Amino acid sequence: MIADLLNGIGLLLWRVVSDQPDAKGALLPVLPAVLQPVVSAVLSVAPIIGVFASLFALTTLLERKGLGRIQNRLGPNRVGPFGILQPAADGLKMLTKEDIIPRSADKVVHFLAPVCLAVPTLLAFAVLPYGRNLVPLDLDAGLLFFFAVGASTELSIFMAGWSSRNKYSLLGAMRAIAQMISYEIPLIVSSVTVVMMTGTLSPMHIVEHQAGFIWGFIPHWYVLTPWGFAGFVIFTIASLAESNRSPFDLPEAESELIAGHLTEYSGFKYALFFLAEYLGMFAISGLGVTLFLGGWHAPLPGLEWIPSFVWFFGKLVSMVFLFIWIRGTVPRLRVDQLLNLAWKFLLPLALINLVVAAVWHFTAVWTFPGALVVRWLLGAALIGGPYVLLGSALSGAKKNTLRVYRYAT
Amino acid sequence: MLGEGIIKGMAETARNFLGSYHDAARLTTVEFPEDKIPAKESARNFPFLVHDGEDAMQGLRCVACQICEKECPPKCIFIIKDTNKKPDYVGKLQFQPKVFDIDVSVCMSCQICVEVCPFDAIKMDTDFELGGSDRFGGLLLNKRRLAKPNSYYHTIHPTEAAEVDGRLAAEKAKVEAKAKADAEAKAKAAAAAAAAKAAAQTTPPVVASTPAAVVTPAK
Amino acid sequence: MEIPFAILTALTLVSALAAMSLRNLVHCALCLALTLAGLAALYLQLGAQFAGFAQILVYVGAVAILVVFAILLTNRGDQAAATRAPARSWVTGAGIAVAVFAVLARVILTSSLATGHPMVDRGSPTVKDLGMQLMTQYVLPLEVIGLLLTAATLGAVIIALPEKKTPAAAAPNH
């Protein structure tokens, strides 16, 4: 019995590491029938929570270190060698703090808000393909599932802001909702291009469509096509806004709103919000990797022997690093700039990108030599032209003129 | 073109990021408890009491005049004057403070106590590592903790200390010269009085006011 | 299969009751969102993935937020409406309720549940099937709904436009 169990666990681990299908099937037959569904569920859920919670801890440290280096500072280096135990110290501090509930707060809603935020954020991880045979839930409408659970986080942010009975909380929550609703549209429209090309809403199949190499060495990832590149850029900008990260961190702009909807939260509830924010960032980065960066596919032909989930997490961490890099570079936007960017720039470009994707799709029948290059240039012109025109029209509207002072000399 | 500035900015931050690893001159951080920057001469934070000589309590320049206590805007100085004079480090009898406390948790480092002190007894310190586990007693500094030798004053503010020393020496010289002149005048007056007394024995006492007239110019 | 259904039904019904009876309007809106989510869960249990996810995306994600915003922008959410609804609203409300009930009753009475015909299990439709149906058989209703939504969006934009000042109002007072 024990030997069988150990054998099953060993086989399961081996199948995971070596990219073989049906890893759970190695362990489940060993167990009694009553336990099988429970263990199956735990085997799907526990690794997600474990891996992404540790990635969260690691990211908080790397973010502080990276931002420090960008600003020519050292970053945290006191707790443990090179500060690697800093997340543990932060976590202990967070968990031992007093849990304060404002006297006039709506206690039930105030308590439920972080829970309602954390649950959908975790649900979003269910449909991402982490490796060749590693997807917790292969849904036919997986992409729709992802956006549906993403959309239901907005209500919990409203709950947090409203129940705190604090004007900063409410303002922050209102801003967060306006921002998330606005950027959800470019996010979805830019993802729709991929759905158009692959004809499926299942992330697993979308990744499978990106297999193979052009001319033997250029991976067949969508980011390397004109519509895919434009879609990826729009997707990245919109996902920055969706995960409330700088330069779109208006909902918790410290200098004006204290901490937005988090103002009245402390201790473990604050930690839950913080965790949900980072998990949301990982989930949406994972979706970007799946849609545009080829998911778990290796970037070069000779590298397929490396387990596929290594590539997935490598790409995910690169996306997170890009987010940190942007945070260290770009200052926060104003509310009107934020909404203008979404409605006047990203949305039209995303719609035009749909047309570009259609052109790419219908020119796929061209077979003359060099057709790929011609198609590429055509697509680039179709999306690049509107980009330049729209950009100059929007940014050229306000010219820098010499300021004239009426009363001062 | 739109987005150019963002690319430029990203390149700049990437340069900073990579540069901070190979170019140590970029990192301006001083890792405090291990490395310290010596305080600048103009630095100041909380006041201390200057003493001359070896024994701190005996050599305090402070004479408990309480001007600083009255001038202190946040009222962080507390002085109780001693009831009798005690010999200072050169043996001269002087009033001294029985209690001289400064609450540095209240002090706002305005330096007004230093400006008003006529005896150059209180000066600004540069020591900032005053943290402790006792919030009240630990930050209420008594005269034993406040007293620091003149040599310490010379190490933290050399120019100012030299100027103060020069002024004090000049004043001392002036006082000594005056004392000498006084002594001489006294001696002269005594001599004159003696002479007048001798003369009064021969002449009638009508001109008895003359000795006073003689003494007056010497005053 | 029966126990999850019972739980979901109870959740949906209780939250719907709460949405009607609670005094605090924001609480009502949150309960309504819970009701909508419960309905989505029921759809999912019936194997209608697309309908379930679309329900969450549209109703929990957008309509609930719209309701909440409307409450916050028009009325103070923490105050219960103290005034009684006027009699005419009662009549209108009752009329709408009867109409909705009549439509639902007709649909249920003509469905296979009432007529006793056995249901044909065609398997869960995929998103692709739905898309094909929408683009072929139901393309006219789809286009009509699209047109209606476009008209509604244009109307909203026109309402939101800053009002042009009339010459008299724009003229300064001097």
What does this structure look like?
- The complex is a heterotrimer of chains A (409), B (219) and C (174).
- Helices cover 65% and strands 1% of the residues of chain A.
- Chain A has 409 residues and is mainly α.
- Chain A has a two-stranded antiparallel sheet with strand order 1-2.
- The longest helix of chain A is centred in the N-terminal third of the chain and has 35 residues, at 36-70.
- Chain A is globular.
- Chain B has seven helices and eight strands, in the order αβαββββαββαβααα.
- Chain B has helices at residues 4-22, 67-71, 112-116, 143-146, 150-156, 158-200, 210-218, and strands at residues 47-51, 77-81, 86-87, 93-94, 97-103, 122-124, 140-141, 147-149.
- A three-stranded mixed β-sheet of chain B has the order 6-1-8. In chain B, strands 2-5-7 form a three-stranded antiparallel β-sheet.
- In chain B, a hairpin with a 5-residue loop joins strand 3 (86-87) and strand 4 (93-94).
- The longest helix of chain B has 43 residues, at 158-200.
- Chain C is mostly helical and 174 residues long.
- The longest helix of chain C has 26 residues, at 49-74.
- Residues 169-174 of chain C have low confidence and may be disordered.
- Chain C has helices at 2-21, 25-45, 49-74, 87-110, 112-115, 127-135, 139-160, 167-170.
- Chain C is built from eight helices and no strands.
- The termini of chain C are far apart.
- Chains in contact: A-B, A-C.
- At the A-B interface, helix 3, helix 13 and helix 15 of A face helix 1 of B.
